Amino acid sequence: MRTFSRRRLLGVAALATATALTLAACGGGDDSDSGSGATISDADVTAALEAGGNLTVWAWEPTLKDVVTQFQTKYPKVKINLVNAGTGNDQYTALQNAFAAGSGIPDVAQIEYYALPQFALAKSVTDLNTFSASSLESKFTPGPWSSVKSGSGIFGLPMDSGPMAMFYNKEVFDKHSIAVPTTWTEYLEAARKLHAADPKAYIANDTGDAGFVTSLIWQAGGKPYQVDGTNVTINFADAGATEFTKVWQQLISEKLLAPVSSWSDQWYQGLGNGSIATLSTGAWMPANFTSGAPAGSGKWRAAALPQWTAGANASAENGGSSLTIPEKAANKALAYGFLKYANDGDGVKIRVDGGAFPATSAEISSPEFLSKEFDYFGGQKANEIFAASAKSVVTGWSYLPFQVYSNSIFNDTVGKSYVSSTPLADSLKAWQDQSANYGKEQGFTVK
Predict the structure, then answer these.
(1) Cα–Cα distance between 246 and 405 in angstroms, integer?
(2) What is the average pLDDT value for the chain, to the nearest integer?
(3) Comparing 4-161+320-365 with 164-316+396-446, is the CATH topology the same?
(4) Structural domain boundaries of the chain?
(5) Is pTM beyond 0.90 here?
(6) How confident is the model at residue 153 (pLDDT cuts 50, 70, 90)?
(7) Does residue 5 surpass a pLDDT of 60?
(8) Residue 7: how many CB atoms within 10 A of its CB?
(9) Is the pLDDT assigned to residue 15 strictly greater than 80?
């Protein structure tokens, strides 16, 4: 489950400190090696759990409270201090401060997928190959697993997932005889038809969102970010980015997108009253519909994302987090035991029952999960849509080792295209150039 607060970004000043620490720590070396390299066996982890001890876990995800309770029941000699050190950027800043000070470092930390590369490159988090974590690959869906890897290193275990779907207001679509679009070209046509029929209705809202843009480029097969240690390539003119730009420029130019910011009261009202007719986002969204737009209950449905190529079957991730072990954690074997329990053991069901969307293949494929009926979606078994999406995530995506900074300047660059005549292709180039300049200033080699 994802909320607005999880989308906040690191402050530029805090990130500058973080990136400086990253370059100082990596010293230009490869990012695939972290720690001493000594292997910690399953027997070592089991022994640590039986011996017990204290763990400090920094995380804001609410379902972890029940996980901690059940974990301590199963392993009574382990005592966990679950700390909400802030959501997203607030916690990352606190982590960077702890790393810099060399004290107050937690044993386990929640880190979102997009932010994980900067911690991995800094060698601030443990390469879980120390625990032979690569053997777990088949247990997780492709998108989240790819997101915890950097080079040959594995720097976290996936906790949740955000495979994308298109949510649409069936009542509005039926009223205006609009077919559910299966391609983005059809989506553009549907946007035109809807707005012509009702000038107060829009196919979607969009005032510019870095995560959304990169997710759709990801789905289109784009790979604007290529990372090899401190060598970085940024290219928003590749085929995937161009495909996205072509369609989205028309939506913007023809004023077919509601000028409403996501997560605002006006946005929730639009979802509830039908003036915003679709939302393409991660599978964590249903709980937010229920709590934020109750007036839309029974009217909405889930569908596969429209495709960039007719007949294709491609998806992308939007959101999600990992659990990591800081490199300076006091008891890594015990910490890994908790990671395994939470993300690959009994904790998975506990979290799913609490409303989280899993990153594990077994849970996503289970009859119980797939057969769940969503009252908000008219009794639809929406998890079938989400599970298919998770299996169709395009592989090979990478984030920048300074992605958090890059996202923080999105509105000052790409955002201009939503409020002026600046072409989207030009503003994406500006985003590319400013991100590249920042990376160079921090000591990265950027092409």
Answers:
(1) 26
(2) 90
(3) yes
(4) 4-161+320-365, 164-316+396-446
(5) no
(6) very high
(7) no
(8) 18
(9) no
Reported as a single tens digit per residue, the pLDDT across 42-71 is: 999 999 999 999 999 999 998 999 999 999
Tokens 């909405």 sit at which residue? Answer: 300
Q: Return all residues near 186 (Cβ < 8 A) that are at least 6 apart.
A: 179, 306
Share of the chain above pLDDT 70, in %: 91
Q: At 400, is the pLDDT very low, low, confident or very high (cuts 50, 70, 90)?
A: very high
192-212 pLDDT, tens per residue? 999 999 999 999 999 999 999
The first and second tokens of residue 311, run together, are: 């007949």
- Alpha carbon distances (Å) from 217 to 118, 307, 318: 21, 11, 11
CA angle 231, 235, 237 (to 5 degrees): 165
- Say which CATH superfamily domain 164-316+396-446 falls into: Periplasmic binding protein-like II (3.40.190.10)
Please state the rounded mean pLDDT for residues 254-282.
Answer: 97
**For position 37, what pLDDT does the model report?**
54
Cβ atoms 308, 215 nearer than 8 A: no
Q: Class of the 4-161+320-365 domain?
A: alpha beta
CA distances from 97 to 5, 21, 271, 288, 355 (A): 21, 10, 40, 32, 32
